[in-house]
């Protein structure tokens, strides 16, 4: 089985709303990443990288489990 890290969107949205972060642009500025990176991560087109994860934990003052989860997926057959 393979694993990947995903954002818990509802949890992140609740945390952001409580801190007055109302747009993806504002989140990108807060985290110091590009707006396109925020979009890809939140739309599940890209796994969050180290910078995204570290900045989220640092800037929002949350624990990993508050915003992220590890999702296990079946690996390729014969791999």
List the helices and strands and how they pair.
Layout: E1 2-7, H1 9-18, H2 24-31, H3 35-42, H4 50-60, H5 64-67, E2 68-73
Antiparallel strand pairs: 1-2
Helix pairs in contact: 2-3
Polypeptide structure, described:
The chain is α+β, with helices and mostly antiparallel strands and 79 residues long. Helices cover 52% and strands 15% of the residues. It has helices at 9-18, 24-31, 35-42, 50-60, 64-67, and strands at residues 2-7, 68-73. Strands 1-2 form a two-stranded antiparallel ribbon. Helix 2 (24-31) packs across helix 3.
Care to give the gist of this entry?
Helix content is 52%, strand content 15%.
Distance between the termini: 10 Å
What integer value in Å does the Rg equal? 13 Å
General shape: globular
Task: Give me the side-by-side strand order of the main sheet.
Answer: 1-2
How much of the sequence lies in strands comes to 15-25%
The count of strands amounts to 2
**What structural class is derived from the secondary structure elements?**
alpha+beta
The amount of helix comes to 40-55%
**Spans with pLDDT under 50 lasting ≥5 residues?**
none
Order of helices and strands: EHHHHHE
Please work out how many helical segments DSSP would assign.
Answer: 5
Mean pLDDT: 93
Main beta-sheet annotation: 2 strands, antiparallel
């Amino acid at each position: 089985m393979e694993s990947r890290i995903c954002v818990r969107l509802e949890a992140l949205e609740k945390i952001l709303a409580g801190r007055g972060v109302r747009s993806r642009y504002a989140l990108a500025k807060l985290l110091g990443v590009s707006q396109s990176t925020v979009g890809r991560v939140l739309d599940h087109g890209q796994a969050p990288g180290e910078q995204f994860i570290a900045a989220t934990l640092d800037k929002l003052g949350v624990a990993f489990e508050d915003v992220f989860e590890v999702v296990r997926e079946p690996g390729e057959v014969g791999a």
